[in-house]
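Reviewers asked in the last cycle whether our approach scales beyond single polypeptides. To address this, we selected a multi-component target totalling 704 residues and predicted its structure end to end. The input consisted of the following lines:
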Amino acid sequence: MKRTAFAAVSAFAFMASNVAVAEPQAEVLHWWTSGGEAKSVAVLQEEFASKGGTWTDMPVAGGGGDAAMTALRARVLAGNAPTAVQLKGPAIQEWYEEGVLADISSVADANGWADVLPESIANHMKCEGTWCAAPVNVHRIDWIWANADVLEANGVAMPTTWDEFNAAAEKLQAAGVIPLAHGGQAWQDATVFEAVALGILGPEGFRKAFVDLDPDTLTSDGMVAVFDQMRKMRGYVDDNFSGRDWNLATAMVMNGEAAFQIMGDWAKGEFLAAGKVPGEDFLCQSTPGDGFLYNVDSFAMFTVDGDDKKAGQDLLAELIVGQNFQKVFNLNKGSIPARVDVALDEFDSCAHTSSEDMNASSANGSLLPSYAHGMALRGAQAGAITDVVTAHFNSDMSSADAVQMLADAVANSM
Amino acid sequence: MTKWLETHLPKVVLAPSFIAVLVFVYGFIAWTAWVSLTRSRLLPRYEIEGFIQYERLFASPRWDTAMNNLFIFGALFIIIAMVLGLLLAILLDQKIRTEGMIRTIYLYPMALSMIVTGTAWKWILNPGLGIEATVKSWGFESFSFDWLVNPDFAIYTVVIAAVWQSSGFVMALFLAGLRSVDDEIIKAAQVDGIPTWRIYSAIIIPSMGPIFMSAFIVLAHLAIKSFDLVIALTGGGPGYATDLPATYMYAMAFSRGDIGQAASSAMIMMLVVFAIVVPYLYSELRAKND
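The resulting structure, written as structure tokens, was:
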């Protein structure tokens, strides 16, 4: 205890001295460029400036971060990395292995990050024991959204098992409503797939399959059942789903054309932006089954030269995990704060559910990383699984073939 | 000094571009070949590991699909665009009055970027918005034209859009070829009472060999490079049913952080181009030496 206190004090003193000598500088590479996201980043920018720092913004839009990653690669190869970069999941460790990430343990220890972040999320922010990234938010993936009026008109309740879901979907289909609003893009197929997999395999099976890539689990009967359910889901989607963007699918639920959508909680932003009220106009619930799949956005800190830049990095890390930014940012973005001690008074009921479930699942070990959103696996492995999922969903491949293909693809991606 | 300049000026002037091509084309081909033999992931690494990336590539069902699609798309695109282009050119060659206007209309698609073509055809072929919905609204309820969302047929929609874009250009090429055939021969044939279709099939078309070759080369490299059209039209979907080698390479290099795999697919693409272009160059060079 004494030692931690000493470490904390000395770390703080070290930081304070840095701040005193050099004006904090930070160059931040991110791809939050759309309306609500840009507003969220501006909050951080203002806070940084009010502490005397100079923020150099480096937004790179396009390709869901692909363009930003290309820019990052060029900067790192040129030996001139930005101070902080929007990175997430195992990509953080992948960059650490290239030897370009900085150690921000002093800030983390001084601010007691270990005590306020759920353990499995904190582990993503560490590189071989030292802190190298700061978490911004927690998106939940395994949500099922529904149009309240459509459900009521057809006498359907929110499903709590996949069998109930199937029964509800068939009832809706018979009534002429599209049961599942879905966009035929590979990542959306993967999003539905992992929600189904979590429900059918259970949290432990999900971890074995998509975190440990255990070959026995990947070829198990449970996995065949997952693909069987996916085949059913294919039948609940309208004919015109190919290539549709997720927000158009959300709009279908909003205007009553479709009943359900399985999508992360950024979909909530669409409902709220259209003036819909959670619990009245639309319903949110976790997809059938236990567990919680998270997608945590974070900033990884790259090695930089110069006291001013290091001071900027430390200040940035402190602000990102700070209570104020965590609250304001997540109110704008529709996610929930990564730290568990932020007051949620201003958040809506879906965010409350999300936060309660996160704490509960963190306690019983079912707080799991999303594979479809690059939290559980590296790009090559996650991509290989998505290829199989989307190939199965968009053809008449049998579940047994899909399972075999899945095992081969994972082995081939190593 | 002036004498030296006289003999060496061409070399001096050409040297910068020669060096640029050497470094930026052949240098980077060599670099890609090197990287394709390594286990590079996020960033390039240079320890050679053998042919592991090629083994992974040929074990990947997605790459199989991409190569199959390239052959289906390439063959259909080249053949249909050439046949259609030739037909249009012959019809236009009948000394009709509004030729100038019609030629411009057929050439215009070439002025559009592939992204625009792809997006427009995406809407036209979308079963809920385009042709299918229109025909259904006329009362033909059983009409179905869902190629765009059908994994088995989606690649043919790419062919349709690409042919629409390029056949006008091929027509212009062929039209120039038709016009360059010596008038005297045609007149002589007409005097001999040979029917028009025989004049085309036995005299004009055979004398247009070089035009066929250039049209083929232009279309073949368009087909192999095709990337933006697929991205705009189908996004590689449904699933990865319309993936082409170029989109595969892009996904590996930029979305998945698998640079070694991307490099090996790029090398295979280059070999395909070589397989087409080298025989052509060879025949050209031989023709000159004769």
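The two ends of chain A are 43 Å apart (CA to CA). We regard this as preliminary and will revisit it once experimental data from Aim 1 are available.
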